[in-house]
Design a protein that fits this description.
Chain lengths: 325, 523
């Protein structure tokens, strides 16, 4: 929890600035939207976090979001499959993508950056080719399935704010991953593998299997995210749906305290990191800044966050060294 | 202007300390043109330190060096860098070959000294020159051959050619034959003899006493950083060198009851590991037995241990308690194999992790219910193990990298103590560990063996082997050179086998006989 204090501070600061200077920030409608977007982005960020723990990276998240998201209405509407079939098929497919990455990385010892960079190109290409680059949507149908992402729960006492249903999968997944990381043997092993893969192997930890599973989980969560995104927005273009989402996911994980060197992570931090990025995006619009500045602002905040983190780390290392000496 | 047998190098009172600890002291040395000087000694005797000082890699802490100038007059020098040494006529041929692999032979010979015309490489001159130097070392190769296409022996010779091309008068070779086959080694020794006849001074370090006996004009023996003797050709044989290398008397261990009747726990048959010489190895370890793998650096001890734990792939058959041991490291650890690696920082500890995390990793899966960590039991076992290993300070939440080397090593060994491994493999169990921690670690290893575990350890330190092992397997050149019981094992006996001597108890004397024995037979 101590690790997440920094990002919590940044998050609150951004919220305060946004609510003081942006008139519509504290409206129920805006906060509802923010919650929805945060949930969706946090889900894919958790996946990115699991891979980053191993010291790896997954650049294909956005393309997997796209492929999973586009395939869902494509199978439902164009091919008339039942939702009961489509959902498992899409999720299993996403997991298999992760398995593919994991096997290439652990068995052939290819670099994660390369493998997932190729994935980034591959899956978007497949999605565009499969749908002949045509926009895919539900055409007003499948309201039942879409309510997974669209349902809102009224909260007694609040008129304009309703809690989006997507917080349920987020909470379930966050708790599950936090328990996994800190209470199970596999979580301990995964963190140890990220800290020192070689030493973990010498200690009898099945490192290759764990790393593979991290990539499976990451792509599976990207698939879950992609499905929820498409249920939420209704229709999307294969050419731009999910573009740069891997960067939002990696940025959220890094802001949330994951070290790209591996071995460090905080589930709570990742969720707050994802929320911070979404508040920033909203704030840019509400503050009347040019929306073209969005990436610049996010880049700057990320840089400040990471730099501060590094400076704090060095300071504490120096202090602990002084204590020993 | 140099005459044959003229003095080229004179060292006075040369010494070097690392962090106050002397690694080399009081070295008096004189090297003449047209001689081959061999430097021999145990691991850690100071051979590398001496070579590094002579070749300018590190400066001496005290003492002086004089090198003959072009007129043959000795002048004091202070070598601050390899460049200084090269300019003074001293060239080092490295043990690790460091040719730039993406260059061709000519390019790597003249790396940093490329002949140029108007700023453009004069490739023609470079290649013609390179051919000349290649011929001097008997290499008949096209100078445009890329270095990564060369065999190791050829690379070594290119390194020698490179040294000659610097107009070096003194050539220094650090274990030049350690990665060569018998025939290649022969060839290199011939070339070294040729260079001597051309009036160069050749200094080389070797672990192979046969080579030394064959070509050295003089032998300098180092032990514990001191020179224990410089022997002239004709006044030494294998025995006299071995005695000077070992010299000191050592307490051997308190004998443990020998268990000839105990069941065989580990049986290794025709094991071929990642070692480049690929000699098949067979041996067995009984329950409750402590077996030491002795041998010089590069003899293949680490490869044997890592093959048994499947850290590196291997051929051949490994059996634990009568059943084949197969699968990856994780599978073998589940069978009760434990390994403590040589390189603690890289393969042993999780530096940024707590002591408790470091110590529990190997057994949290055995201590879990439905794969959920039982934190209370974990804490209890960790503190019990810290107690048992006498790990100080006794703070489980302390970060491991803030501990001393000895306590870090205790955390790595203690990791395995809780599971009572059937077979404990240790690679350099007490490297970088202070004396008292070493004694405590040895006591724990003995206690583990007393309870029926088998222990197989590799150590470069003869003292440790003699103190800890019930039986010693001596390795040489990737194979087993011989086996000694605790009674038979002495420093001299181990060194004899480790340097390629014959395992027969009646040792052959005289040099003529020993030349051929080294490479012809593989044990």
């Amino acid at each position: 929890m101590k690790k997440s204090l920094g990002i919590l501070g940044i998050f609150l600061a951004v919220c305060v600035v946004a609510s003081v200077f942006g008139q519509n920030f504290l409206t129920g409608y805006n906060l509802m939207n923010l919650t929805q977007r945060t949930s969706l982005f946090a889900i894919i960020s958790l996946g990115a976090g699991l891979v980053i723990i191993t010291g790896g990276i997954d650049l294909s998240i956005g393309s997997v979001v796209c492929l999973a998201g586009i395939t869902t209405p494509w199978l439902l509407v164009e091919h008339g499959w039942s939702p009961w079939v489509v959902i498992p098929v899409v999720l299993i497919g996403s997991a298999l993508i992760g398995l593919f990455h994991g096997v290439l990385i652990t068995r052939l010892r290819l670099q994660p950056f390369l493998v997932t960079l190729c994935g980034l190109l591959l899956y978007r290409g497949v999605a565009r080719w499969m749908t002949s680059d045509q926009s895919q949507g539900f055409q007003g149908e499948f309201a039942g399935v879409r309510s997974i992402a669209l349902a809102k729960f009224p909260i007694p006492g609040l008129d304009t704010y309703q809690l989006p249903a997507t917080v349920i999968p987020l909470i379930v997944l966050s708790v599950a991953i936090a328990v996994f990381l800190h209470r199970t043997v596999w979580g301990r092993w995964l963190l140890a593998t990220g800290r020192n893969e070689s030493a973990a192997r010498y200690s009898g930890v099945p490192t290759a299997w764990l790393i593979t599973m991290a990539y499976v989980a990451c792509s599976l969560l990207a698939g879950v995210g992609g499905m929820l995104f498409i249920f939420d927005i209704g229709s999307a273009q294969p050419s731009d749906f999910g573009n740069f989402y891997e960067l939002y996911a990696i940025a959220a994980a890094v802001l949330g305290g994951c070290s790209l060197r591996g071995g460090e992570a905080s589930v709570f931090g990742i969720v707050i990191g994802a929320a911070t990025l979404q508040v920033l995006r909203t704030a840019i619009i509400l503050l009347g800044l040019s929306s073209q500045l969005e990436f610049a602002v996010i880049g700057a905040v990320l840089l400040i966050g990471v730099t501060t983190d590094e400076l704090i780390r060095r300071y504490s290392v120096r202090r602990s060294e002084r204590k020993i000496a | 202007m140099t005459h044959p047998h003229q003095e080229l190098l004179r060292c006075r009172n040369l010494g070097r300390r690392y962090a106050g600890v002397p690694a080399l002291a009081d070295i008096e040395l004189s090297v003449r043109a047209g001689e081959v000087l061999a430097i021999v000694g145990e691991n850690g005797a100071g051979k590398s330190t001496l070579l590094k000082i002579l070749s300018g890699v590190i400066p001496p802490s005290n003492g002086s060096m004089q090198i003959a100038d072009a007129d043959g007059v000795l002048r004091s020098v202070q070598l601050q860098s390899v460049r200084d040494a090269t300019r003074a006529g001293i060239a080092l041929v490295h043990q690790e070959l460091n040719l730039a692999e993406n260059l061709d032979i000519a390019g790597s010979i003249f790396l940093g000294r490329e002949p140029a015309r108007l700023g453009f490489l004069d490739l023609h001159a470079m290649r013609a020159n390179a051919s000349k130097w290649l011929a001097r070392v008997g290499l008949n190769l096209d100078p445009t051959t890329p270095c990564d296409a060369l065999a190791i022996a050829q690379r070594q010779l290119v390194e020698v050619a490179k040294a000659l091309s610097c107009e070096a008068r003194i050539l220094i070779l650090d274990e030049p034959t350690s990665s060569l086959s018998a025939r290649e080694a022969d060839r290199l020794l011939e070339i070294m003899a040729d260079l001597r006849n051309q009036g160069k001074a050749v200094i080389f370090v070797s672990h192979h006493l046969d080579e030394v006996l064959r070509i050295a004009d003089r032998v300098m023996v180092l032990r514990d950083g001191q020179c224990t003797g410089i022997l002239e050709r004709g006044t030494y044989d294998r025995d006299s060198i071995e005695r000077l290398m070992v010299g000191r008397s050592i307490e051997t261990n308190q004998p443990r009851p020998v268990r000839q009747d105990a069941a065989v726990r580990l049986r290794v048959t025709e094991l071929v590991g990642a070692h480049h010489r690929k000699q098949p190895i067979s041996f067995a370890v009984r329950a409750g037995e402590i077996v030491g793998l002795a041998g010089l650096v590069g003899a293949g001890r680490t490869e044997v241990l890592e093959a048994i734990a499947a850290i590196t792939p291997h051929h051949g058959h490994v059996e634990l308690d009568g059943a084949p041991l197969s699968g990856n490291t994780a599978a073998r650890v589940r069978r009760g194999v434990a390994i403590v690696p040589e390189d603690r920082a890289r393969n042993g500890i999780f530096a940024a992790g707590h002591v408790s995390m470091n110590m529990s990793l190997a057994w949290i899966d055995r201590n879990s219910r439905a794969r959920t960590v039982n934190t209370a039991a974990e804490r209890a076992i960790v503190s019990q193990m810290m107690d048992r290993m006498q790990l100080r300070p006794a703070e489980p939440s302390r970060l491991v990298h803030t501990l001393s080397g000895g306590n870090q090593q205790k955390s790595v060994i203690g990791r395995w103590m809780a599971i009572g491994p059937a077979l404990l493999l240790l690679d350099e169990p007490t490297r970088g560990v202070d004396v008292s921690a070493r004694a405590e670690i040895h006591a724990e290893i003995r206690r583990l063996a007393d309870s029926g575990s088998s222990v197989l350890f590799a150590s470069s330190e003869l003292e440790e082997v003699l103190m800890l092992a019930d039986r010693v397997i001596v390795m040489h050149d990737g194979g087993i050179a011989g086996e000694l019981t605790a009674h038979e094992a002495t420093e001299v006996a181990i060194m004899h086998l480790a340097t390629g001597g014959e395992p027969a108890p009646a040792r052959p004397r005289g040099t003529a006989h020993e030349h051929g024995s080294e490479y012809g037979t593989s044990s």
